[in-house]
């Protein structure tokens, strides 16, 4: 129901009011993977995960080569295994590196072997970064991976020990809420955007509802207290728009059954509006 909640909250109207042309491709369907064996018995709903990953991978690879900005609506953050890997495949065909900004309370850097919970939304970032053990997901090894050093996780406040070791070993950028408190979110984001620009990179943004503090965004099943504020989140979106670097976007983990009169869906739509150019007031440059 997440994608339909975004539609009801006026996502298309918001983007069109900003002058953008919007095409809704509708809800996709997972590929039929048959009786696919799980590589680890602890994994939950593995055939469904593989089916969705294969469908989204193909769709994102197709859309990513076009001069558009795909917005992928979900749903579980596991969907990013397909969207990001497909965008990476498209970026490789275009001869440009893909960078990923992961806005999330969690790092989602488990492999199928390290996850204890079996929750597959904890694995997509490890998959797209080429960690081992994921061949069953697409049916073949992932050919176009994301360089872990091109990944920046911002707003994290819940990391398991196994993930922490893997993040350090692979050089992933991790900025937790303490760093945001100490240095400010703009000071942490700006150097990453400068690296993307210097590399002529494409930038995929994956925005999880739990990046936000649950007081302002309750409609998520994995709430973690102490998330980003309304203004911090909008500042990130405004800086992303100003950079002109964003080439694709995930909006994930919206569970409308946990929402309060639709306020989380509306906030996510407002944040998307900021990313696509909504301003309170244009600030002209003056010369003196």
Automatic annotation (TrEMBL):
Task: One Pfam family, please name it.
Answer: Arginase
Q: How is the cofactor bound?
A: Binds 2 manganese ions per subunit.
What are the alphabetically sorted keywords of the record? Arginine metabolism, Hydrolase, Manganese, Metal-binding
For this protein, what reaction is catalysed? L-arginine + H2O = urea + L-ornithine
Annotated transmembrane regions: none
Keyword Manganese assigned: yes
Could you say which cofactors this protein requires? Mn(2+)
Q: What is its EC number?
A: 3.5.3.1
Tell me the domain of life: Bacteria
Describe which pathway this protein belongs to, using the record's wording: Nitrogen metabolism; urea cycle; L-ornithine and urea from L-arginine: step 1/1
InterPro entries recorded: Arginase (IPR014033), Ureohydrolase (IPR006035), Ureohydrolase_dom_sf (IPR023696), Ureohydrolase_Mn_BS (IPR020855)
Coiled-coil zones: none
Could you cite one Gene Ontology molecular function of this protein? Answer: arginase activity
Similarity annotation: Belongs to the arginase family.
Q: Which NCBIfam families match?
A: rocF_arginase
The name this protein goes by in its record: Arginase
